[in-house]
Amino acid sequence: MNTILSKEQLSAEVFRMEIKAPEIAEARRPGQFIILQMGGEFDERIPLTIADANLDRGSITLIFQAVGESTHRLAMLNEGDEIANLLGPLGTPTDIRQYGKVVCIGGGIGAAPLYPIVDGMKKAGNEVTVIIGARTKGLLILEDEMRAIADEVIVVTDDGSYGRKALVTEPLKELCEDRSIDCVVAIGPPVMMKFVSLTTKPYGIHTIVSLNSIMIDGTGMCGGCRVVVDGKTKFACVNGPEFDGHLVDWDNLLLRLSTYRDVEDEAHHRCHIGLDIKEGEA
Amino acid sequence: MHATIEELDAQAQGIVSEYGNRQLKPKERLEIPLQEMPSQDPQLRITNMEEVALGYTEAQVKAEALRCLQCKNKPCIAGCPVAIDIPAFIAEAAEGNFAEAAAIIKESSLLPSICGRVCPQESQCQLPCTVGKSLKDVDLSVSIGRIERFVADWARENKKETTPTVGEPTGRRVAVVGSGPAGISAAADLRRAGHSVVMFEALHKAGGVLVYGIPEFRLPKSIVEHELKTLTDMGVEIRRNFLVGKTRTVRDLMEKDGFDAIFIGSGAGLPRFLNIEGENYVGVFSANEYLTRSNLMKAYDRSHSRTPIYNSHSVAVFGGGNVAMDAARTAKRLGAERVTIVYRRTEAEMPARKEEVAHAKEEGIEFLLLHAPLRIVADGKGKVNGVELITCELGEPDASGRRRPVEIPGSEKVHPFDTVIVAIGNDSNPLIHATTDGLEVNKWGNFIVDEETLETSIKGVYAGGDIVLGAATVILAMGQGRKAAKAMNEYLATL
User: If you measure CA to CA, which chain A residue comes closest to B429?
Assistant: First the structure.
């Protein structure tokens, strides 16, 4: 069913896979995600954002970071292998329209789901500036792909090993000062999205963020992914995953993301065995 | 004192040898004691996930069947949502003709092994039972559900089930959305009529609420798998990982994929919350989430499952239905020292099956009745450490006919808990409605259907089960699946 058509390692622990999934490829829009389950009785369901789709090949592209046990096992699959369970597209697509000047920010693996949004924003007639950031050069992804479609690409790294030594919020603040930005889209670690939202708030710039809360079914059935937006409970899987960053209760999101941290830390330790990932880079 | 299956069987054998070989007078039948359901010892079963109720022995089922008066007016049939010929199958069971008994049930109900376990018999077939009426206690009615369970299990285990025959191909294609009880029964009847049937399921496992919702200790998943295998053996195609409304819309299925008719049995999958303060703290779960983690994702098997489940010591479960009991008993099995059902009314108003309440009590689940949650409180790290409850008293009956709980001012008190499971019901999942123009729903989001045919506002699209009824029962969903299939078969014949 869901055959892996190609696999590529983009950085130390980031992989790109093109997977046969004609129905998902046809239905998906930027901002949507899939849920994947490896097929075993005890395997978990993991949400991953769709990075791209190809209608001719009937395929979708997933870019994922091997951070947990399941993503590590996914990373060990190869071209020709099947992914047992793939459900999608899920969530509400990105609100793409002609805003004017748009800044799209991708932190780490967040550049992957950002890519189709950049593409969509560009096609909708926006002037698009992309800021991609990572901890270090080896973890940067999709720079060339972004350069091929965006009007401008700013690269930052935490350690200064490539591009500018800065957090994504620094060039963002300068852009907010210098130009009249109409919309910001930020996808990355929750802390990054929180500070992007805090940066744009004084300027009143509409800021879209994509929330990665814990979910199981992805169809609205379990309610595990609930987030507080504008004081109201929303389900990230169906009402989101994208929300107005200025209205998100970030502290609650961070809190809820920590629900199973004790259990996961233990699992993470075990799961690095068997994958060619250098400790320290992962 | 917990009676073992051997003890219960020995008693039953005595009854069968005393009463079994002669014509009984009604008075004699009424003398026969109700056969208790053998069960795992409570102290043992809270340490495992295996089925609690072990099922009658052959002697027990015969003894219990002898209690049936075979009365003329057969009120039990009217009490059954699918009108099973109950006295007929009980008469066969009393004679030990279990295959015949099972065949009689299968004429009306496709899932007797499941319904025998999860139906609320005390408010359906067993409520008007003449034996219960004569003995002035509904709890002493003939245990119809337990006999049903036995004969259905017997037929399955002895491979004596009648395989449904499939009619000549009609060339018509039907989509069934959802693989729960409504979908299963609709698919079977549509396939029997010779249509090509594709069943769509969003999750990676089929079975709907029977798989993600009802725990193993109440409904073994092997039974659900068996029923689904019967469907696939009949030629029904089950497509998992397919979310109608997202992967394809209902309109796509008809216009692009060429389905001639669609049955939607997508269930009531949108958990209700109380909307009280603190409901998004760490340690608050919907029962759907808690049970899905445990049942579907097998999180109860902590050493194997890759899906974690919260480590709890003291759990409050809000609600008084079967789902609340399931969640509470699951939490107990997962190691919580204290599990408390918090319910606004009294036990008499609880919607849960009596047997589930009794089992929960045997397992040490505490019941805090006439208490309503006001807010959830947490420690400095946002983890739940208590619930503020207010005491209630019962007032006038409300729209549901149950007496309304009235809060007593000044009785607020914070009780310590580290986990809260909210089991106060489900609303309709809006996914299909939101992606299907012209599909009419009521104010709760339930699909509006024709009462006779269960056709929705869109021609050729039918619906049944919880998406129509709101959160109801397996047997009602099954009944609707069959009713819709009948109308769909008639509709498809006109095309």
Answer: A220
Task: Dihedral sign for Cα B41, B46, B52, B54, please.
Answer: negative
Residues of A in contact with B420 (CB under 8 A): none
Spatial separation of the C-alpha atoms in residues A232 and A226, rounded to whole Å: 10
Is B5-157 CATH 3.30.450.20?
Answer: no
Q: Is residue A251 part of a domain?
A: no
The maximal CA–CA distance of chain B, rounded, in angstroms, is 73
By the CB < 8 Å criterion, does A85 face chain B? yes
CB contact at 8 A, B267 and B244: no
In a domain, A268, yes or no: no
Question: Which residues span the domain enclosing A204?
Answer: 101-210
Q: Domains in chain A: how many in total?
A: 2
Whether residues A110 and A158 fall in one domain: yes
Q: What is the ipTM of this complex?
A: 0.90
C-alpha–C-alpha distance, residues A139 and B185, integer Å: 52
Question: Between chains, do B246 and A89 touch, taking CB under 8 Å as contact?
Answer: yes
In a domain, A254, yes or no: no
pLDDT computed for residue A282 by the predictor: 36
Q: Tell me the CATH number of domain B173-269+427-492, given options 3.50.50.60, 3.40.390.10, 3.30.70.120, 3.40.50.970.
A: 3.50.50.60
Q: What is the pLDDT of residue A280?
A: 39
Task: In whole angstroms, give the CA distance from residue B118 to residue B146.
Answer: 10
Dump pLDDT digits (tens) for A123-148: 999 999 999 999 999 889 999 999 99
The reply to whether A216 falls in a domain is no
Give the gap in angstroms from C-alpha B172 to the nearest C-alpha of chain A: 23
CA distance B16 to B89: 18
SS3 content of chain B, % helix, strand, coil (to 5): 35, 15, 45
Q: Are residues A52 and A122 in the same domain?
A: no
- Return the sign of the alpha-carbon dihedral for residues B65, B70, B71, B74: positive
With 0.90 as the threshold, say if the pTM is over it. yes
Of B247, B285, B296, Cβ closest to residue A88? B247
Extents of the domains making up chain B: 5-157, 173-269+427-492, 273-424
Residues of B in contact with A88 (CB under 8 A): 243, 246-247
Last residue of a domain, one of A178, A210, A242: A210
Half-sphere exposure for A142 (CA within 13 Å, toward CB): 31
Instruction: Give the domain CATH number at A115.
Output: 3.40.50.80
Chain A residues 217-246 with a CB less than 8 Å from chain B: 217, 219-224, 226-228, 233, 238
Judging contacts by C-beta atoms under 8 Å, the chain B residues touching residue A23 are: 242, 247-248
A191 vs B366: CA distance, rounded Å: 41
User: Which of A42, A86, A224 is facing B306, going by the closest CB pair?
Assistant: A42
The predicted-structure confidence for B176-233, as pLDDT tens digits, reads as follows 999 999 999 999 999 999 999 999 999 999 999 999 999 999 999 999 999 899 899 9
Looking at the fold, whether A52 and A109 belong to one and the same domain comes out as no
What does chain A come to in residues? 282
- The CATH-assigned architecture of domain B273-424 is 3-Layer(bba) Sandwich (3.50)
Does the beta carbon of A69 lie under 8 angstroms from any beta carbon of chain B? yes
The tens digit of pLDDT for each residue in B227-239 reads 899 899 999 999 9
